[in-house]
Amino acid sequence: MRNIIVKAEQNYQVKVGIEFNLEIAEIIKNHNKVLLIAPASILKNFKVKEGRNLSIFATPEGENQKTLSTLDRVWTKCAALGIKRGDAIIGLGGGATTDLAGFAAATWLRGITWYAIPTSLAGMVDAAVGGKTGINAKSGKNLIGSFYSPTEVLIDPKFLRKLSSRDLSAGMAEIIKCGFISDYKILNLVQDEFLDYEELIYRSIRVKAYVVSKDFKESKLREILNYGHTLGHAIEKDSSYKLRHGEAVSIGMVFAAELSRDLAKLSDDAVLLHREILKNFNLPITYPKNRWSRLLQMLSTDKKVKQSKLRFIGISKIGKPVWFEDVSPTHLAKVYERINS
């Protein structure tokens, strides 16, 4: 087991290489009441059952759980159980589950202890680390939320054995992102014939932990973690979430690389490397030509827009992020032409 410390409003550990059943048992020992929030499929696949002071709330699958109605049902469950400030919530599932569980913990009694046990690769390297919690609004993804760190993030790599190849690839997009913005060694490791997932998870979390520890509330530096996400979030929503988050981010990274070639002189080889690595994991790198006008509308609602100026994260070379503070829609349209299908 290897530990990574994240410095936030409270310091916490990310433990990589644990046994999740043993960790849940330890959490139960430390609290009078524990509410475990997880999708029904996770509860079934890993035979998680209620115990003397462990109660379970089964959520819908995927993004369908990140709704105000589901959150209200979690609050109702907390009230029925008599969950107090000394008690705890566990989020066991993918990124949508840890987002929901963290926000429920942040808002119940103005904040109770919570633990994240991510079961998807994307959840392990991205959603569960960094303290961002929240649910989706009709107007966009993750527009309702808070910064509220868990007490621990617990990573059990054996969850990956149950993931489909598509879900593994979607998670790899977030790992590849960390390689391009910070740790070039990741880009070497993802090209190995046999992937060392635990090492890739560890290195990716280390990248995120460093950034979050320097800039917990995203005043500026933390924005580099959104490489590929600005267009990616718009694509994800435009697809009605039929595309996995990582799949949409994959397209967004190719777009960001092409934009970086224009505005930051990113080399042709680095742009090509984006396409090659992402294609190796069967990730999409194009999006339909006729969706641009709709995507542009959605870009205007992105959280990084300031004073109506469209902003993007790019790189000038591998490991060197740059900020594009005011990109014209005309220029963006020209770049989109290079990635459309």
From TrEMBL:
<dbReference type="GO" id="GO:0009073">
    <property type="term" value="P:aromatic amino acid family biosynthetic process"/>
</dbReference>
<dbReference type="GO" id="GO:0009423">
    <property type="term" value="P:chorismate biosynthetic process"/>
</dbReference>
<dbReference type="GO" id="GO:0003856">
    <property type="term" value="F:3-dehydroquinate synthase activity"/>
</dbReference>
<dbReference type="InterPro" id="IPR056179">
    <property type="entry name" value="DHQS_C"/>
</dbReference>
<dbReference type="Pfam" id="PF01761">
    <property type="entry name" value="DHQ_synthase"/>
</dbReference>
<keyword id="KW-0547">Nucleotide-binding</keyword>
<keyword id="KW-0170">Cobalt</keyword>
<keyword id="KW-0862">Zinc</keyword>
<keyword id="KW-0028">Amino-acid biosynthesis</keyword>
<dbReference type="GO" id="GO:0005737">
    <property type="term" value="C:cytoplasm"/>
</dbReference>
<keyword id="KW-0479">Metal-binding</keyword>
<comment type="pathway">
    <text>Metabolic intermediate biosynthesis; chorismate biosynthesis; chorismate from D-erythrose 4-phosphate and phosphoenolpyruvate: step 2/7.</text>
</comment>
<dbReference type="Pfam" id="PF24621">
    <property type="entry name" value="DHQS_C"/>
</dbReference>
<keyword id="KW-0520">NAD</keyword>
<dbReference type="InterPro" id="IPR030963">
    <property type="entry name" value="DHQ_synth_fam"/>
</dbReference>
<dbReference type="GO" id="GO:0000166">
    <property type="term" value="F:nucleotide binding"/>
</dbReference>
<comment type="similarity">
    <text>Belongs to the sugar phosphate cyclases superfamily. Dehydroquinate synthase family.</text>
</comment>
<dbReference type="GO" id="GO:0046872">
    <property type="term" value="F:metal ion binding"/>
</dbReference>
<keyword id="KW-0963">Cytoplasm</keyword>
<feature type="domain" description="3-dehydroquinate synthase C-terminal">
    <location>
        <begin position="171"/>
        <end position="305"/>
    </location>
</feature>
<feature type="domain" description="3-dehydroquinate synthase N-terminal">
    <location>
        <begin position="58"/>
        <end position="168"/>
    </location>
</feature>
<dbReference type="GO" id="GO:0008652">
    <property type="term" value="P:amino acid biosynthetic process"/>
</dbReference>
<dbReference type="InterPro" id="IPR016037">
    <property type="entry name" value="DHQ_synth_AroB"/>
</dbReference>
<protein>
    <recommendedName>
        <fullName>3-dehydroquinate synthase</fullName>
        <ecNumber>4.2.3.4</ecNumber>
    </recommendedName>
</protein>
<keyword id="KW-0057">Aromatic amino acid biosynthesis</keyword>
<keyword id="KW-0456">Lyase</keyword>
<dbReference type="InterPro" id="IPR050071">
    <property type="entry name" value="Dehydroquinate_synthase"/>
</dbReference>
<dbReference type="InterPro" id="IPR030960">
    <property type="entry name" value="DHQS/DOIS_N"/>
</dbReference>
